[in-house]
Amino acid sequence: MSIKPVALAVIGGAALLTLSACATSPELAAPGVTLSVQQAGEPQQVTGGVQLLVLLTVLSLAPAILILATSFTRIVIVLSMIRNAIGTPTIPPNQVIIGLSLLLTFFIMAPVYNQIDQQALQPYLKKEIDQDTALNLAVEPVREFMFKQTREKDIQLFLDLSGKSQPKTLADISTVDLFPAFVISELRTAFTMGFIIYIPFLIIDLVISSVLLSMGMMMLPPSLVSLPFKLLLFVMVDGWYLITRSLTLSFFR
């Protein structure tokens, strides 16, 4: 008789016994670790489990919300376009661009966060309001910020796509319609600012290319010669100061 089928049968039997023991025992123990599974006997326990699941889902989506519902999108796009306009696609590194974008985002969104803390978080921690009221109060400052940066045309687009009636007040516009409208408005503003930033560097490239062509130096890459001039221009006008000032003031207009 072959040993392999017997060994497989023994292993399979042991596995079935283990699974049956796990199914009948509500508690699994390991060295230093104990896992217990109990059935919910009351509706409140089921509701608490569902709330915990929703909370974990929201926390997993927090980075996306931070990127799309704040000033981060506009800032990181503009800073990335500046880097490409100068002609140094890897300088500053991505870590510096992302870090500076996050710092500016925290600075710009600080009034909104303070308002959320005063209106929603602190009263909820003091048990003055319930969870649903705290969430509704926390969303209002964010909605107000998004309304200031969103074009009416973009909001109307998503209202028409969803087939909703014309709202009478801003409160009638749901966050589901406001969120994507805010994102495409931010993308449009970021690309507009990037286009304006590109113009002086593009002029330098054209001038350098014309000079090299007139001198017969066609084998020399124009970007190699124009890079020092673009860096000199950016440093002389204090480019990082101007860009940071323009980005910050664009959210407080």
Overview features:
253 residues; mainly alpha; two-stranded antiparallel ribbon; 10 helices; 3% strand
Q: How do the strands line up in the largest sheet?
A: 1-2
Class inferred from helices and paired strands: mainly alpha
Cα end-to-end separation:
87 Å
The rough form would be described as elongated
Order of helices and strands: HEEHHHHHHHHH
* Quantity of strands, as a count: 2
Poorly predicted spans = 1-30
Q: Specify Rg, calculated over alpha carbons.
A: 29 Å
Oligomer: single chain
Average residue-wise pLDDT: 77
Q: Give the fraction of residues assigned to helices.
A: over 70%
Helical segment count: 10
**Percent strand:** under 5%
**Most strands sheet:** 2 strands, antiparallel
Describe this structure in words.
The protein has helices at residues 3-24, 43-60, 62-68, 72-86, 94-125, 131-149, 152-162, 175-214, 222-236, 239-250; strands spanning 27-30, 33-36. It has 253 residues and is mainly α. The protein has a two-stranded antiparallel sheet. A hairpin with a 2-residue loop joins strand 1 (27-30) and strand 2 (33-36). The longest helix is centred in the last third of the chain and has 40 residues, at 175-214.
Topology of helices and strands:
Elements lengths: L2 H22 L2 E4 L2 E4 L6 H18 L1 H7 L3 H15 L7 H32 L5 H19 L2 H11 L12 H40 L7 H15 L2 H12 L3
Antiparallel strand pairs: 1-2
